[in-house]
Specification:
The complex is a heterodimer.
Chain A lengths: L10 H28 L2 E3 L6 E3 L3 H8 L1 H34 L4 H9 L6 H11 L6 H8 L10 H29 L3 H9 L4 H12 L1 H18 L1 H7 L11 H11 L3 H31 L1
Antiparallel strand pairs in A: 1-2
Chain B lengths: L5 H28 L20 H10 L9 H32 L5 H10 L9 H10 L6 H9 L3 H12 L2 H9 L4 H12 L1 H16 L3 H6 L8 H7 L11 H21 L1 H12 L1
Helix pairs in contact in B: 1-13, 2-13, 3-6, 3-7, 3-10, 10-14
The chains are: A mainly alpha, B mainly alpha.
């Protein structure tokens, strides 16, 4: 889409664009370029010498079991967060949509976790699930479940998935509710008159009509689980126990700032950037299709 | 309602109540914990009714902070406010101008400028953390408020939202302004800006929360404790060595204080917030 009516001038638009472009180049393109550059070198921990190693850093990552394990952890984590968050969001939105007028009240009661910082969400849940004094741990113990996420890898991963999904439910809920409210009620009524039950209507009418929303949320949730959950991991498990919750963004940070492996960290950054760009392309392919509807 | 089904109505309320509880329980328990004293909070199970130490705990954290050589939470909150407002206003200002240039002008390299901004759309700072840190440190911006804010501003979401909105503004308005001999900037300030009020409010809410909730970036860049925002300061109050070393009642009071401002912004500006989120999808 383009404007028919435009203003004249060359210097003014350049001036207007200057702040954004300066920031983008300084804090986006230069770092990205630097990551690409550093990923081809091996550096000592003091930054005194750099040796050209070509694609060695990438090859080492490929052969590093810890990195592959981190990939696997990220995949399980992202899948868990996305599925759980989407299912809970859709469930709540579908029921809230039935309430018509009261839906706004419910919306207010459900959307506010969006405002909670991931790190704070981590602290909230860490307190509930604290092995020795957490309230939920106490309940679990009463049920005969031995809960200690500080020692057991599976429980640690489960906990961070729960926290990350919990924080994202409000967002998914909001979009599903908006999607449901835009489905014409006449469609649902027509199906009801034809004798379709609640479940049948959901499967053959509501869910297909929600497909664009679902797909959009799928991508957004993936991006969220991959990149925005750093603070949750750092606050709750710090990647442990035994690296069982060390997702890719966490590993980039640890290897870079604690391990001082600049080349390896840069190579990981490059791989992550390619991942995001892939997801962005996926997203925009879909947006274009939606415009053509 | 399409039909009346008693069981479905009952189920509706059960599910929604369950949802509201699942969302609210952690915060309720946090609030309770923030009203107890140091012994009560360590009891298992923890009491589920408010204690009597609410004022004491909150004034303690606001005034003195938690732990050895602590800084007061009130100054952490101010740091967060700075950061949130800086990110919100900075991002809005920068993207308003660039969106205006891209939509209302034709100039060489316009497509290129657009693409340069476009690529940054989804790449969070976490991904390029190490090199961004190196850039900021070579600019001498470590431990400065500017350094905390600037790298966060480099993203394209807001630019796209404004571009989208400007494209929906009728061409006749710009035409009329041109015929009347108004300069582009005059048109921008007198016509376009007032029309963008709702988009501005929506973006403000989202960016304010985004800035307030930043964690990794301020964690790395603020070694000066006086600059630490509350979200970062809070996690540093929790001892990793053992539960007894953590003053949970005071930590939880800090959690409540850290959550309050963004939660209020979302609840009070709900209409714009919802609009902002749903619009930025398009």
């Amino acid at each position: 889409m383009e404007k028919r009516v435009v203003f004249q001038g060359r210097w003014l638009p350049a001036l207007l664009l200057l702040p954004q472009l300066t920031i983008t180049v300084a804090f986006f393109f230069v770092p990205a370029g630097q990551a690409l550059y550093q990923s081809l070198f091996r550096q000592d921990a003091f930054g005194l010498s750099m040796v050209w190693v070509g694609l060695d850093n990438f090859r080492m990552l490929w052969e590093d079991p810890a990195y592959l394990a981190s990939f696997r952890t990220t995949a399980i984590f992202a899948l868990g967060v996305t599925l759980l968050g989407l299912a809970a969001g859709l469930l709540l939105a579908w029921f809230a949509d039935r309430l018509l007028r009261a839906a706004t009240l419910i919306r207010t009661l459900i959307i506010w976790p969006y405002a909670i910082a991931p790190a704070i969400a981590g602290v909230l849940w860490m307190f509930l699930f604290n092995p020795s004094l957490g309230l939920v741990s106490f309940w679990l113990k009463a049920l005969g479940i031995h809960w200690n996420y500080l020692l057991r890898s599976d429980q640690a991963l489960l906990l961070v998935v729960l926290i990350a999904a919990w924080k994202q439910v409000s967002y998914n809920f909001l979009f599903f509710l908006a999607g449901l409210q835009s489905i014409p009620k006449s469609l649902i009524e027509a199906a009801a008159i034809d004798g379709a039950g609640v479940w049948q209507r959901f499967c053959s009418i509501v869910f297909p009509l929600l497909a664009p929303t679902t797909f959009f949320l799928l991508v957004i949730n993936m991006v969220y689980a991959f990149f925005d959950t750093f603070a949750i991991i750092d606050a709750v498990t710090q990647g442990g126990p035994f690296s069982s919750t060390e997702i890719l963004v966490y590993k980039v940070y640890r290897d870079g700032f604690h391990g001082l492996d600049f080349g390896g960290s840069a190579a990981q950054s490059v791989i992550l950037m390619m991942l995001v760009i892939g997801l962005t392309i996926l997203q925009f392919r879909y947006v274009e299709r939606k415009v053509n509807y | 309602m399409v039909e009346n089904r008693r069981w479905l109505d009952v189920l509706t309320w059960i599910v929604l109540l369950g949802g509201v509880i699942a969302v609210g329980l952690p915060v309720y328990v946090t609030f309770i914990a923030s009203t107890l004293d140091a012994q009560e909070v360590l009891r298992t199970p923890m009491p589920l009714v408010p204690g009597t130490h609410l004022l004491e705990n909150y004034s303690r954290v606001l005034g003195r902070g938690v732990g050895e050589s602590a800084i007061p939470v009130s100054s952490m909150l101010l740091n967060s406010l700075w950061m949130a407002l800086g990110v919100a206003f900075g991002k809005i200002a920068v993207s308003l101008l660039s969106a205006f240039a891209i939509v209302y002008f034709r100039f060489p390299l316009r497509k290129l400028a657009f693409c340069l901004i476009f690529v940054t759309l989804m790449l969070p700072v976490e991904v390029r953390i190490m090199p961004t840190y190196q850039v900021v440190s070579s600019l001498g911006l470590i431990n400065t408020r500017l350094g905390m804010i600037l790298p966060i501003i480099a993203s394209a979401t807001a630019t796209f939202l404004f571009r989208q909105f400007f494209l929906s503004v009728p061409d006749e308005l710009a035409e009329a302004a041109r015929v009347d001999g108004a300069s582009p900037l005059r048109f921008f300030f007198d016509t376009l800006l007032p029309l963008s009020a709702t988009t501005l409010a929506a973006l403000f809410v989202i960016q304010f929360i985004y800035g307030w909730n930043q964690y990794l970036w301020p964690l790395l860049i603020t070694t000066d404790r006086n600059l630490v925002p509350v979200v970062v300061g809070l996690t540093q109050m929790i001892s990793r060595s053992g539960d007894a070393a953590t003053n949970w009642n005071l930590v939880m009071a800090t959690v409540m204080l850290a959550m309050l401002p963004p939660a209020l912004v979302v609840i009070l500006m709900q209409r714009w917030f919802v609009k902002g989120l749903v619009d930025s999808e398009k």
